UniProtKB/TrEMBL annotation:
Residues annotated as domain Transposase IS4-like: 92-250
Protein's name in the database: Mobile element protein
Keyword Cell division applies: no
Domain Insertion element IS402-like residue range list: 9-81
UniProt keywords, alphabetically: Membrane, Transmembrane, Transmembrane helix
Record-linked InterPro entries: IS402-like_dom, Transposase_11
UniProt superkingdom: Bacteria
Pfam families associated with the record: DDE_Tnp_1 (PF01609), DUF4096 (PF13340)
Residue stretches spanning the membrane: 240-257
GO biological process, one term: DNA transposition
Length: 258
């Protein structure tokens, strides 16, 4: 039995996911096993330290970084995340987003770099250069999906994209006033779902809202609170959007393993 240090996975947690990590096949056998590499990545994400400040007990930071980028490129972290979503509670689904400040080191990606969203999901708003994490959680507060945009993108523009791929015919969608657009409400109704979204004060044709059920929206706020315990998520340092999204998946994996 290995006694985990701070930020590291426990034996039971690692046992649940170790089968998804591929064996090292390139060249000589690596002295860096997958568990140590993942623990090194978690240490960086929780501490917010630069890669070069990785403690010596994890080995060379270059080796860990190379392993991390290989896993990101293969989509490993998204795969593990999706595998851990086991029988979600679809009765109440909560939508929301959170703003993340982009560090100056996160800007300046190469023009020919892989880009999954416009401008690497870095936007310019009153808060400076920011990224917005859009999330969907189930009735227990467990994450189901994410999208990244620039910080200036309105929440409702990404909502239907987040809901796609899920059967919401028996679901109640809980969200704040920003999601009360006619387009999104019609989308939910077309999918045979219902919504608990309060209307804005200046809305002419107001609809009813069960504010007792609306209080369940705290689940997604709690999730964002847990997510931002990872300092490399609370402040974005990664230039590429798909690399930053991978860190969101890693943090969500840790949350689901608790």
């Amino acid at each position: 039995m290995i006694t985990p240090k701070r930020y590291e996975l426990e034996d039971a947690q690692w046992d649940r996911i170790k089968g998804y990590f591929p064996p090292y096949r390139t060249g000589r056998p690596s002295s860096l096993d997958n568990r140590t590499a993942l623990n090194a990545i978690l240490w960086l994400m929780r501490s917010g330290a630069p890669w070069r400040d990785l403690p010596e007990r994890y080995g060379s930071w270059k080796t860990v970084y190379s392993r991390f980028r290989a896993w990101v490129s293969s989509g490993l972290f998204e795969q593990v995340f999706l595998e851990l979503i086991d029988d979600p509670d679809m009765e109440n689904l909560s939508l929301d987003s959170t703003i993340v400040r982009a560090h100056q080191k996160a800007t300046g990606a190469k023009k020919n770099a892989e880009c999954m969203v416009e401008n690497q999901a870095i936007g310019l708003s009153r808060g400076g250069r920011t990224t917005k994490i859009h999330a969907l959680v189930d009735g227990l507060g467990n994450p189901l999906g994410f999208r990244l945009t620039g910080g200036q993108v309105h929440d409702s523009q990404v909502a239907s994209e987040l809901l796609e791929g899920f059967d919401i015919s028996q679901s109640n969608i809980i969200a704040d006033k920003a999601y009360g657009t006619a387009k999104l409400r019609q989308y939910i109704e077309d999918k045979a779902g219902v919504y608990t979204i309060p209307p804005k004060e200046n809305t002419k044709d107001k609809w009813t809202c069960d504010y007792h059920v609306y209080c369940e929206r705290h689940l997604i706020e709690n999730f964002f609170n847990q997510l931002k315990n990872f300092r490399r998520i609370a402040t974005r340092y990664d230039k590429l959007a798909h690399v930053y999204l991978a860190t969101v998946y890693i943090a969500s994996i840790c949350i689901l393993l608790k």
